[in-house]
Amino acid sequence: MDIQPKDRIIFPLDLPGAKEALRLAKGLSDHVGLFKIGLELFTSEGPQIVKQIQAVGPAGIFLDLKLHDIPATVTRALRAASRLGVDFVTIHADAGPEAIRGAAEVAAGTGTRILAVTVLTSLDKDTLIQLGYQPDLAEDMGKVVLRKAAMAREAGAHGIVCSGRELETIRANLDPELITIVPGIRPAWGSVSSDDQKRIATPRDAIRAGADYLVIGRPIRDAADPVEAAEMIAQEISEGL
């Protein structure tokens, strides 16, 4: 399948309700590859929002629920999610190999792929230390991400979510077929006020480092013309390929 630069853009519908989500989806469906439906929208609107967004246009669905529970619960939740016909579902790597393995087995043959969330891009070394990581490990975020990614891949995850800063380490050490999805993307031409992302990268740099998909929200959503912003980002991606 011929993947265009725009197909690598995942636009997060991080919104409180269906009305605004559907408005943005209708405007952007031909200009991005997937829509991310996260906890806020899914909790507000329920599974029907997935079908509503799917009906808008050709863009796929990245269901970002970040499942993190005992293996049996994760497996049952994944079974329900796969029935919605979504492309990706996220599971926290910290749920462990048994939970990831069970989810991957349930997803087999459904078309839904499992992504392990390694370390949230809002976290830095100081936060990891607060969470109980040894200082020498927290200093090397790449090592933390690599350990979690390797475990998740061994357990059957199709891909991982990580920041652009860890991509070089991932690509140098793990299966080249591993799908990499990178949030915390900020285009070279724009900035975001009150940014809570601490490990960011530009679209061009992330693609050059080996990213398959980029999660890009506020630079598109907050632009005067979201379609134009998406097209500019697609051009940056093209330059990185």
Question: Can you identify the CATH class?
Answer: Alpha Beta
Number of strands: 8
Q: Work out the count of structural domains.
A: 1
The assigned structural class equals alpha/beta
Helix segment tally: 12
What fraction of residues sit in β-strands?
Answer: 5-15%
Largest beta-sheet characterization: 8 strands, parallel, barrel
Spatial order of the strands forming the largest sheet: 1-2-3-4-5-6-7-8
Which term fits the overall shape? globular
Assembly state: single chain
Radius of gyration (Å)? 17 Å
Low-confidence stretches: none
- For the termini, the CA-CA separation is 16 Å
Question: N-to-C SSE series?
Answer: EHEHHEHEHEHHHEHEHEHH
Q: What is the assigned CATH homologous superfamily?
A: Aldolase class I
CATH architecture: Alpha-Beta Barrel
- CATH topology, which one? TIM Barrel
Describe this structure as you would to a colleague.
With about 240 residues, this protein is of the alpha/beta class. The chain has one domain: TIM Barrel (Alpha-Beta Barrel), CATH 3.20.20. The protein is about 45% helix and about 15% strand. It has 12 helices and 8 strands. An 8-stranded parallel beta barrel has the order 1-2-3-4-5-6-7-8, surrounded by 7 helices. Helix 4 links the parallel strand 3 and strand 4. It is globular. The two termini are about 15 Å apart. The model has no long low-confidence stretch (mean pLDDT about 90).
